[in-house]
Amino acid sequence: MKVLIVDDEEIERIGLSTILLRNFPSLTIMQAKNAKVAIEMTEAFQPELIFMDIKMPGMSGLEAVEHLHSRYPTIKYIMITAYATFDYAHEALKLGVKDYLLKPSKKSEIIETVARVMGEIEAEQAQRRERSLKEQAWQKALPIMEADIVTQLLFDHVHGIQVEELIELLGIQGDGQKFVMSLLIPKGSEHFYTKIKEHVQDAGYVGALYGRQLPIIVMRDRSLSLRSQAITLARKLLALAPQGERKEWFIGIGNCYDSFEQIRKSYQESLIATKDTSLHVSFRFYSDLPEVSAGGSNRDYKEMEKRLFEQIRNGQWTEVSDSLVKLIHQFEQEQTNLNHAQQRVLELLWIASRVLHELGIEAEPPLYSAEVRSYGQLMRETNLLLQLLQQVYEEYYEQLENDSIQQIKRYIIDNSHLDISLEGIAAKVNLSPIYISKLFKDQLGINYITFLTECRIEKAKKLMTDGEKSLKEITFEVGYQDPNYFSKVFKKLYGVTPKEYRKTLMSVKG
């Protein structure tokens, strides 16, 4: 610990320094002959404790403390005075003055006062170190949380409580328009993830990377047109691609929406916009997709594309089949060119295979065995391709469902006190984040964050029976970094604060 002694009498400085070093040999001590010199020395020396004489030529000790306190608020002061009247005591206490020593002071009084103040300084330093470590841990957790929130917002698997709290913690602005960009990168390019996040950090939030696809929620910049903002960001991201891989990078851009509840629509649109990556440009807006026909059915077709996302993800194969049959009949009634109709149906089947890929299900790209020559043949070929996709889906689920959910639940229960994320779980069990999220919703009726929260709160309730543990200690032990956030979550789940719950618990126990 560093100590600065400020006194205009040299003999006083030497005497105090001698006493301190004999009783506290680990101290580093420097001396200043007046307040002005003390201010200059403090900047370079950075002492934790200053002994300040009150009456000195020029600037008084109290004036010096006031000057230093504004710049170095953690420094503690012990005032030295030959006067027993302390008219200025109230003001001095506000400036960090911890005690007074009267000249001449007894050696025992000096030692006792210094030991006590040093103890306070060390306790505060320990608290600052603890806060710093927690802040570092929090900063490391933020990117993980960001990816989780984005991923789950886009797939509607987060309970409202968690959305509100997590968005608040991340400082995400919920108001204003937002849109989604889906970035497709070649396999083996995972190492670009960090660079992509760096390029996006001021503009939006990046989700989890699975397969080739990386979803990005972009916050609308009102000072720019949507097209200008999206193109600028798209070009920045595409510039990251190595020279030989640039044709394999592609970005789909969805429309703008006002709320996070609608953001899934923009995500679906952004992914649909990537269905043809053979364009002469490397990005495309959903709004630029060509119309289906001149008959005014373009809106219905686009809505069908979006519905298909949810139907495939939820395993609603009967509904998918009915929709495709209805579409083919509609094309036939409108006497749409057969090749054109075949291409449109194939695009929808492609969307189905893309959704399966999101879930971690590898399916062969749907292709017709030959050019169809009648609408009857188109119907038969389409049903065959759809059955193949459904078979792959059902086999994959049947194989993994039972074992996976138990494995994931056990992992979360055992590690609930750690920073658990969808990406982390996915890496552990070798499944896609989206599949895990869906699995929880299908099997348990909740999302994984709700399950993780329940695990943490149940553990906290058990720890509260130990009267020796503080609520702050319990907060950190169960995996939360912020006691206030822990209290909010607890109250929303149980209707009372942790403090109120513990009080009731102890009264029943007593």
Automatic annotation (TrEMBL):
InterPro entries the record matches: CdaR_GGDEF (IPR041522), CheY-like_superfamily (IPR011006), Homeodomain-like_sf (IPR009057), HTH_AraC (IPR018060), HTH_AraC-typ_CS (IPR018062), Sig_transdc_resp-reg_receiver (IPR001789), Tscrpt_reg_AraC-type_HTH (IPR020449)
Pfam families: GGDEF_2, HTH_18, Response_reg
PROSITE patterns associated with the record: HTH_ARAC_FAMILY_1, HTH_ARAC_FAMILY_2, RESPONSE_REGULATORY
Domain Response regulatory: 2-118
Ranges of residues in domain HTH araC/xylS-type: 406-504
CDD domains for the chain: REC_YesN-like
GO biological process, alphabetically ordered: phosphorelay signal transduction system
Keywords on record: DNA-binding, Phosphoprotein, Transcription, Transcription regulation
MF terms in GO: DNA-binding transcription factor activity; sequence-specific DNA binding
Coiled-coil boundaries: none
Modified residues (4-aspartylphosphate): D53
Domain of life, per lineage: Bacteria
Name of the featured protein: AraC family transcriptional regulator
